[in-house]
Specification:
Elements: H1 10-22, H2 44-53, E1 67-69, H3 74-87, H4 99-108, E2 114-117, H5 123-132, E3 136-145, E4 147-150, H6 162-169, E5 191-195, H7 200-208, E6 220-222, H8 225-233, E7 238-242, H9 244-249, E8 255-256, H10 273-277, E9 284-292, H11 293-298, H12 300-320, E10 323-324, H13 327-341
Helix pairs in contact: 3-12, 4-5, 12-13
């Protein structure tokens, strides 16, 4: 089965159905909100069931596993849940996409069993989990290369340095037109697309490129990477960034920009499975999920799912356009899972 076709377009349809059913507000509009429902097989009833199943007393064998977080990690987890449910038809594991930050908010609130992230957990999130009495286990799933892309009709951007990326994306930058970046480029406005502030991809870009700064207020932000893909594909002067899998699935309507390494040189390196795997691509990064220890200790469904996830994450990551982690990473994950389950 080609999972790359599963998670792209249906996201919009599911979001529309959820929005229609739930209306505008909602108790979780600040963090998870309607985006939670954009996982496989999700809907208003199923989303509600997932929240009920992951409260203080665990899932109680209800068959639902609550998962939320990064839209970058979503394609991997969606593929895992699809395969898992084929073998365990009575266990439902829909995947939400609140963004890494939004997913951690729900994780801290005790609403989810797994929280996906395209960046490591931050200290303030660790502190909040400790205060809430929630212990967790970090599992590395795969590698991604944050991809900077322009419209395929853009014939002048052949590479970008970190400094130029900062000029384009940083809030407060004086650069408004492409000619402000390089004199030889057109005097046309730069149309910027970027992940929302709850996204781990936003955080990674902020840290690695913007020196902890914010993305321009002129940028069009979205937690849904499909919105960013469509924005760049639909505007000749556009530029945006998102996970490599979203580029790999849409190469006909996007042009990946080679990035010049920070240590210098004139040659940009284009994202590919090879350059991400050997970490030569300057914006390579690991992808994670965080599992609540209580769920592993008290819910056999979660144990089954997490073991299945670890056994299949590498292959399914490759299937949806990412890069599998080295085998020793999955072996280390197995040890972590066993330690928690056997406590």
């Amino acid at each position: 089965m080609n999972f790359k076709k599963v998670w792209m377009v249906p996201t919009f349809a599911t979001l529309a159905v959820f929005a229609s059913a739930c209306g505008g507000g909602g108790e979780e509009s600040s963090g998870s909100g309607s985006e939670e429902s954009s996982g496989s097989g999700s809907g208003s009833e199923e989303s509600s069931g997932s929240e009920e199943s992951s409260g203080e007393e665990g899932n109680g064998g209800s068959g639902d596993i609550a998962i939320d977080g990064s839209s970058t990690v979503f394609p991997i987890m969606e593929a895992v849940s699809e395969e898992f449910q084929q073998e365990h038809g009575n266990i439902e594991a829909p995947v939400g996409v609140s963004g890494s930050g939004g997913g951690f908010e729900r994780f801290i609130a005790g609403e989810t069993d797994l929280s996906n992230a395209s960046r490591p957990i931050e200290q303030e999130e660790e502190d909040a989990l400790e205060e809430a009495g929630i212990e967790y286990t970090e599992l590395e799933l795969a590698y991604d290369g944050l991809t900077v892309a322009v419209n395929p009709e853009n014939d002048f951007v052949d590479n970008l340095t970190f400094e130029e990326l900062s000029q384009i994306f940083a809030d407060g930058s004086d650069a408004q037109n492409w000619s402000d970046i390089r004199d030889s480029w057109p005097d046309e406005p730069i149309d910027i697309y970027a992940p929302g502030t709850d996204s781990g991809t936003y955080d990674f870009f902020s840290e690695e490129v913007l020196e902890e700064g914010d993305v321009s207020r002129e940028a069009q932000l979205s937690e849904d990477d499909n919105v960013l893909v469509n924005g760049v594909a639909g505007s000749q002067n556009a530029i945006g960034f998102f996970g490599y899998a979203y580029y790999a699935e849409n190469q006909d309507s996007l042009k990946a920009v080679p990035i010049v390494p920070q240590e210098g040189g004139d040659e940009g390196i284009e994202p590919s499975q090879e350059t991400i795997n050997d970490q030569s691509y300057p914006l390579s990064r690991p992808l994670f999920t965080y599992v609540k220890n209580e769920s592993l200790q008290e819910n056999e469904d979660v144990v089954e799912y997490v073991r299945f996830l670890n056994d299949n994450a590498g292959d399914l990551a490759e299937e949806v356009g990412y890069v599998a982690a080295p085998e020793e990473v999955y072996e280390e994950n197995t040890q972590k899972i066993d330690e928690v389950v056997n406590e």
